[in-house]
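Regression test case RT-17, inverse folding.

Input:
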């Protein structure tokens, strides 16, 4: 039997440029730390090799410290072996990267840079399909069909790219055959590119990233523990959690009568989990100006507890009541401004962007007046 860990899309060196500087540093460090967490899961579960199915590095020119510290972290966990496959972000076109990696490469780190059988263990052969360029324009796993391996050997494919519609950053010409495992007689096909875990069939899996880096997939970081008893046997595939940060999108549907602050409080995670959580609250439905303002204020008040807390209110419609405007002022310049903004926000002849500006201005005016009155 062979037991290994399947991981991908570590994206070491990712910049996270749209986030605050302190958080960017924490997220980059968490990605580096995923190497150790993968090693720990391998040891706990009796695996002696970690297959990294592409995009170990976020770019073709990672900083020297990113590259060298990653290899040093892997070397620290010998005799556990790491197999690194070039992905579309760190393809073979980045010749200086792969040349630098080969220098002083520790014995427990294997670069799967050739489309040729690679013995992993007695009776176990790896068939890698390294990305030749960022957009290779063809199915790089096709060679596996005719790849010769010893009779009775376990055949494991390793590739990076989209199957069907599962793609992070590639074009239709790069789609891998969804039945490659069947065509090539593979016992398991380890895929990278999609950052969320997906089972294409019993023998073909995307592992997802061990450390999430976006809200898109809304899943914890994980790798897949894979056990294969013998050639032809169906693999046993078990997810193991490896993520340090959680990226979540939490829907919040509201009606005008709802207590927006209470509704928000009910969906927030416990305080001890918040520092490691990036949470986007996706509000929808309808709320009055007072409720919408209270929701924004509650998010702002809770935000310091989180790595990141943001409110997406694009799908939350605002209901305007005369009583809301009365809380701004009953007469005078402020009331005139509020009436004008409400009219602009309701005017369907205006562009949606202009109506949104008016809604935002009216909400800020309401918030300002409410604060001044308290």
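Golden output:
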């Amino acid at each position: 039997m062979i037991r290994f860990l399947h991981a991908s899309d570590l994206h070491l060196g990712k910049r996270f440029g749209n986030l605050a500087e302190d958080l960017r540093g924490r997220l980059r460090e968490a990605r580096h730390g995923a190497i150790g967490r993968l090693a720990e899961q391998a040891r706990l579960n009796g695996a002696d090799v970690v297959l990294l199915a592409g995009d170990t590095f976020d770019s073709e020119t990672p900083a020297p410290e990113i590259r060298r510290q990653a290899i040093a972290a892997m070397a620290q966990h010998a005799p556990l072996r790491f197999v690194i496959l070039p992905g579309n972000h760190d393809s073979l076109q980045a010749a200086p990267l792969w040349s630098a990696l080969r220098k002083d490469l520790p014995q427990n780190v294997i670069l799967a840079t050739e489309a040729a059988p690679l013995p992993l263990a007695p009776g176990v052969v790896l068939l890698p399909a390294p990305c030749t360029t960022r957009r290779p324009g063809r199915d790089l796993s096709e060679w596996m069909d005719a790849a010769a391996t010893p009779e009775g050997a376990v055949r494991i494919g390793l590739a990076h790219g989209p199957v069907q519609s599962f793609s992070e950053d590639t074009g239709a010409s790069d789609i891998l055959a969804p039945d490659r495992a069947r065509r090539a007689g593979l016992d398991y096909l380890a895929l990278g590119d999609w950052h969320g875990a997906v089972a294409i069939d019993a023998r073909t899996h995307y592992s997802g990233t061990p450390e999430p880096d976006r809200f898109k997939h809304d899943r914890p970081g994980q790798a897949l523990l894979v056990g294969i008893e013998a050639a032809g046997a169906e693999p046993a595939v078990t997810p193991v959690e490896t993520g340090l940060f959680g990226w979540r999108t939490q829907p919040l549907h509201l009606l005008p009568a709802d207590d927006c602050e209470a509704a928000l409080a009910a969906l927030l995670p416990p305080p001890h989990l918040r520092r490691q959580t990036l949470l986007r609250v996706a509000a929808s439905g309808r709320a009055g100006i007072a409720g919408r303002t209270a929701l924004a204020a509650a998010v702002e008040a809770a935000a310091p507890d989180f790595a990141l807390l943001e409110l997406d209110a694009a799908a939350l419609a605002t209901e305007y009541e005369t009583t809301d405007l009365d809380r701004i002022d009953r007469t005078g310049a402020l009331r005139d401004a509020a009436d004008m903004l409400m009219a602009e926000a309701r005017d369907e002849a205006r562009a949606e962007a202009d109506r949104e500006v008016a809604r935002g201005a009216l909400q800020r005016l309401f918030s300002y007046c409410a604060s001044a009155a308290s």
